[in-house]
Amino acid sequence: MKKLVYLLAFSIALVSCKEEQKDYVTFSGKITNKNSETVTISNPQFKFNKVIKVGEDGTFKDTMNVKDGFYRLFDGKEYATLYLKNGADINMTLDAKEFDETITYTGVGFEESAFLAQSSLNQEKLFGDKELMDLPELDFRSKVSSFVDDFNKRFEGASLDSTFVANQKQSIAGLEKYLTKMYNDKQYIAKNLAKGADSPKFVDYENNAGGTTSLDDLKGKYVYIDLWATWCQPCKNEIPFLKKVEEKYHNKNIEFVSISVDRQKDYETWKKMIVDKELSGVQLYAKEDKAFMDAYRVSGIPRFILLDPEGKIIDSNAPRPSNPKLVELFDSLNI
Q1: Tens digit of each residue's pLDDT (9 = 90 or more) over 65-102
Q2: Does 83 share its domain with 49?
Q3: Ranges for the Thioredoxin domain (predicted)?
Q4: Are residues 78 and 148 in the same domain?
Q5: Cα separation of 189 and 47, whole Å?
Q6: At which of 190, 215, 234 does a domain end?
Q7: Do 222 and 306 fall within a single domain?
Q8: pLDDT tens digits for 245-281?
């Protein structure tokens, strides 16, 4: 009976001594050659923002109650990505002069952040390969495939949060898809949108002055095309510069063609903006037709294109009106 009581008491003692799961993460570290007096940990999605003071010797420490997930660390100049969970006790060291190359993590629950740090270095090296997008297709695919395989091998035997692993596998699949699209687009542009190639065409776009206009209607003059939208602030920022360029080359052998890619719901906004901002040149509405933009592999606006009088490409990604190089280009063509 005494033995049974003793064993029971011993079991209770073990349970009492077992450390409970902390509802916070402890984050500490030391920064050599620090960039500021603080580091900031944030996650806008969680509406989380924590500023931690960095001592004169570069050390810092604080506790945070967090939701499991990814956080951004900012040292006043550069960023790093962390993965934080309550209960973790992570220590970070780095030299701010060689930020990515020197980040190290130790402690409890550091593995995910260390994984991210290594991934960042590997990805930086891959994107730093200036020859990657110019490789023959089989060599390109082989190099990207090897990068992905090496990434996935790092999961083997690693003690990582299952949610984190799922996210990273989705992330690497997305990166592979992104790189492949970049490569395919560059090869397409080199083949189909090179200087001297026939330009893709747009047909029967609505002309604000009345009727419709097709690219073929503009043959005989140089054509400077502006792809824009009323909701695009960078597009609107170019308007004053475009007006000045149009005025400088008024009555010259060039047409300035602005093509609105607004959705139908913004059609009246487009019409009104032409009046309010006194837009000149040829003002066209694409009527939600994306064929011309897709043919030029447009991924963002504003986008400017310059064609010669025969409808051949001079520059498929021409300088913006705000760029002095545009006037230099026009003058070199004796427009």
Answers
A1: 999 999 999 999 999 999 999 999 999 999 999 999 99
A2: yes
A3: 193-335
A4: no
A5: 41
A6: 190
A7: yes
A8: 999 999 999 999 999 999 999 999 999 999 999 999 9
Joined together, the tokens standing for residue 234 give: 């960078």
Task: State whether 64 and 179 are in the same domain.
Answer: no
Tell me what percent of the chain is helix, strand and coil, each rounded to the nearest 5.
40, 25, 35
Query: In terms of domains, do 222 and 275 share one?
Result: yes
| 283 closest CA partner among 297, 291, 272, 294 | 272
Cα distance between residue 96 and residue 118, in whole Å:
17
CB neighbour list of residue 163: distance below 8 Å, 6 or more residues apart: 68
Q: Rounded to the nearest 10 degrees, how much is the dihedral formed by the CA atoms of 20, 25, 31, 36?
A: -150
What is the C-alpha to C-alpha distance for residues 198 and 193, in angstroms, rounded to an integer? 8
Query: pLDDT tens digit string along 187-242?
Result: 999 999 999 999 999 999 999 999 999 999 999 999 999 999 999 999 999 999 99
Q: From CA 311, how far away is CA 37, in angstroms rounded?
A: 58
Q: Provide the sign of the torsion angle of the four alpha carbons 192, 193, 196, 200, taken in this order.
A: positive
In this structure, is residue 296 part of a structural domain? yes
The answer to whether 293 touches 226, Cβ cutoff 8 Å, is no
Q: Is residue 113 part of a domain?
A: no
Class of residue 82 by CB neighbours under 10 A (exposed 0-12, middle 13-18, buried 19+) = buried
Asked whether residue 161 falls in the same domain as residue 276, the answer is: no
CA distance 82 to 74: 11
For residue 235, give the 3-state DSSP assignment: helix
Which of 165, 190, 215 corresponds to the end of one domain?
190
| Rounded alpha-carbon distances, angstroms, from residue 57 to 33, 63, 100, 106, 268 | 9, 19, 20, 19, 61
Tokens of 80: 């790093």
| Three-state secondary structure of 54-119 | CCCCCEEEEEECCCCEEEEEECCCCEEEEEECCCCEEEEEEEHHHHHHHCEEEEECCHHHHHHHHH
The domain in which residue 40 lies consists of: 25-107
In a domain, 8, yes or no: no
* Residue partners of 237: CB distance under 8 A and separation at least 6: 322
Q: Is residue 118 part of a domain?
A: no
